[in-house]
Known about the structure:
There is one protein chain. 38% of the residues lie in helices and 26% in strands. It contains six helices and eight strands; from the N terminus they run αββαββαβαβββαα. Strands 3-4-5-8-7-6 form a six-stranded antiparallel sheet, sandwiched between helices. A two-stranded antiparallel ribbon has the order 1-2. The chain is globular and about 55 Å long. The mean pLDDT is 86.
Amino acid sequence: MRVGQACLQHLIVGYVSVDLATFLNPNTMEQKVWAIDLDLTYSDNLAMTQMLLMMTGGMLNFHTGCLEVPMPYREKGCEHQTAAKPPVVPRYAVIGSHLFHSNLSMLYHNVFLMVCKAHGIGFNMKRKQGTIFAVYDGSERCRMGMIAVSEDLQGALVTFARNLSVIHQEISPSNMQGETNFKYLIKEVEDVLQMTVQNKMRAVEDKPASPIY
């Protein structure tokens, strides 16, 4: 909101993307977030976020920073259920809008999706979680976007990294590995996963013990 108000004061309206840099303060181990740049354009990340909202039917709660997704009732026929609003559950998503692999150009899109289906990579519309692909139909066909949605952050990160690993293995024979950023992204996700595990352990250690009566 503060960035938006500052833009409005300078007569900047419309789509604005904010570049953020985050790091841990080595002295306090506190996470810091800096806004370092503005892009006055409709960004790829915004387009991927809109796709996420469309597929999940959810909305972003900007006050809590959560993705809230309505879940349909499992049983039908109850009048009070159909009249009431469906329950809302949180979902976590990892978005990659610039995935590159030169070997992707050797596969037609339907073959690529069949390979993913064979490995259980897909999106469950009822549970509102799984994997969503944005297949860019360019002349080279070597770039794509991917969204991993899960009930928790750790699950979304694991799904994202596993998908990259499976796709890389399926389209990269030993004699033709190709050019890709998949391996780098897998390493980055693994580092974030390790950090989330450490944060959970630290939260448990910092939690005060329950009194014994």
